[in-house]
Structure prediction request, 616 residues.
Amino acid sequence: MTWITNLPLLLYLVAIPLISMGTTAGQAGLTWIGFLCILCASLITPGLRLRENVREKSATTQFDHPDGDTK
Amino acid sequence: MQTNLPVDFLHWFLAIFPMILLLVLLVFYRWKAAEAGALGVLCTLLTAALAFQTPFNDLAVAAAKGAWDSVYILYVIWPAMILYLLGKASGAFDALGKEIVHFSKNELFLVLGFGWVFASFFQGISGFGTPVAVAAPILVALGVRPVYAVAMTLIGHAWANMFGTLAVSWIAASQVVDLQDPVTTAVQTAFLLAVVNLAGGLMLAWLYGRGPAIRHALPMIVVIAVIQGGGQIMLAGVSPVLSNFVPGTVALLVLYPLSKWSRYQNPIPADLTDRPAMEGNSDLFSAENKGADAPIMSLSMAMFPYVLLAAIAIPMLTITPLTNLSSAFSFGLPFPQVETGYGVLRGAEAAYSPLRPFNHPGFFLLITAAITFAVFSSKGYFDEWARRVEVPKFGSELVSAAVPTSMAVVSYLIMSRVLDHSGQTSVLAFGIQTFTPPLVFAFFANGIGIFGAFMTSSNTASNVLFSPLQSTIAGLENLPQSSIIAAQSAGGAIGNAIAPANAVLGTSTTGIVGKEGEILRLTLPWTLAIAVITGVLTVVLVSLT
Prediction:
């Protein structure tokens, strides 16, 4: 587990006060930053999963021999 | 409230699409709950913005409210995980298992003791898969076939999911639904779960040795079911937070006097020959005979954290001056009024869902963990246990266990709030109401809970995702909210018996990875049978309420 796998949870939590302050005080900038935190957090975790899938797939195909044997 | 939400097939499909995406990712692509949940958040935000005219501010407020709701639950998850890891790192669980084996020479008594009572006790204090991870390997050591060991613990602890871990799933349901009658809801939920509990005990005995085993174990099953199920019913209306933990602990303690009864003190009767769940000899009995690996601490010391937890939580929740004092400090964040283009309006909040940090299960768990750490350190248990087994670093183990669970909880709560604020929950409910008569819906309400738990392997997540929908449909169908939420909650608990992630946890800790299908073949018939029974009981409750 690396820092990036823990980052989304922090981003979700950081977004709460930013959006609360931004929407109640009418500061669109804060709201945007908070909302971006939510979006980034929601992208990172599935992104890591997809990257892992691609790595696994390439690792499998890399060792596939044309005639079907594997080395 | 007047809205002009479009209730047609396209919008109904778009409203349910995030759930379908979750199902596909979790079940067919085997994504983890946190991964699927995060993508579910994106999908829900997109459908809300593009198909349900939800403006940016509304989306942001809904997402922030969902994330804030999760703080309540994370405040239980992390301290519960800390307490569990302290027990693991000090050898307390090893001692607990070895000491209970000394109680009896009766194999069936021990199988029920660990697979049902011990697993339920663990669900009461920790949850998040630990009952399966801890109890299943002990059953294997007792000589139970690994597939049966995992199936037994899955079934044995299912009933405790709802009010276990100091009622975290109950707290979750209360966060996402404005309960009209919390006491009746809690009591009806506990009633349905009492039936699940009794059925769990009977099923474990049946799996062990069919009819003769049930006959031999029946007095024990009745006593334990009355304590666990009956105790939960009695306490649910008074203090849902303690309603599983207290009876679970009492049931564990009652194993001792039960083991002194000759029926359960001596080996199983000679006529109990057909024992499909068993193979070989018990490692624990042989270890005992050899005198190897003596427990690191006494049974009373292993139980110390849980007795302490009760000693802290019970007065804090029941003595009014203490409750008032600990509830005095609270804080919540303000949010403005928001409205969608379809007229779905959510009012302004000066302090949204205020958190009382000193009158919260998480606080009781933290205090217990701190005292336990001090006591166990002074006794040298951590050092002694680290000399016997390789103990992973506490911090990294905590983070790697708690972060994925927390991510799943946060993302599901954000999804739930966005679905609610955008009116997607209402569209789903309108659609279901159109095609389902009230009593038919009441019968299948627990099925939705089971489905949610099957997808997410969590009673909490099931409640977060589906309680608002169930509540809205109950209102539209003129059904009592308390009975429908009770059915949802019971379903969420039952569904844990067939949840793939729970099965994987069991197979990985018992060395049978890949045999999840065989486990499902044992747990699925029980799940279906108990779904029908609780469905009928929900119809009865609806008719009586």
The radius of gyration of chain B is 23 Å. Chain B has a mean pLDDT of 89.
